[in-house]
Predict the 3D structure of the following.
Amino acid sequence: MKKVKLMIPFFLMPVLTGCVAENASRTGQMDHKYMKAILMFIRSFSFPVLAFGIGMLCLAIKDGEANSKVRAIKIIGVSFLMFSLLSFAETFGFC
């Protein structure tokens, strides 16, 4: 279990450092770079959340439970929101 906990930060570092290095020449403000790095991480995390939501929806349809369907649709909606946050931030000039 300790190996898994130690591998998570090493997995995230290329995503965060790549984003910061990419935008270093365009803007001089570090907060915009870090905001974009965080939003890129959230966007990449939205795909597993979407897969989980679709799996929950399939199981809910199979079982016929209305409450489970609603929860699965909410998770799918949250994954779309997570995916679109970076686009909204770039459109409105936050990063």
In short: The chain has three helices and no strands.
